[in-house]
Amino acid sequence: MSNQTQTATLSGGYRIEMLSGSNWLPWKRRMLAIMRDSDLEMYIKEGAERPKTTATTDTTAKDAELAAQKAWDIGDSKARTRIELSVGDSEMVHLTGAETAREMWEQLIQVKEARGRSGILA
């Protein structure tokens, strides 16, 4: 029986082992490094959220809001793509229902990191 390791090659030329049931800590550390280097870490940090729309009637302010939201959407999409492409098939279930990179990251943390007696070590 061969023990082949699945790897992912992400944009930027990064090549890391896909997330499996047994490599959470090294995978997490490498993904954090990739996100930092790609200026995408802000999309997975606690409190990460899309800029809000305000009730302003100032067209300049409204244009700035829309530009900030568009930039956020693009960055979040890139972060989600990096996560999705580096998670193995058996672990993909943990991303179900997540709509943002932050939600994906939080769901992986909830499943993979020990929290009291019911924590799962991975």
Automatic annotation (TrEMBL):
Highest taxon of the lineage: Eukaryota
Protein name listed in UniProt: Retrotransposon Copia-like N-terminal domain-containing protein
Source organism (scientific name): Auricularia subglabra (strain TFB-10046 / SS5)
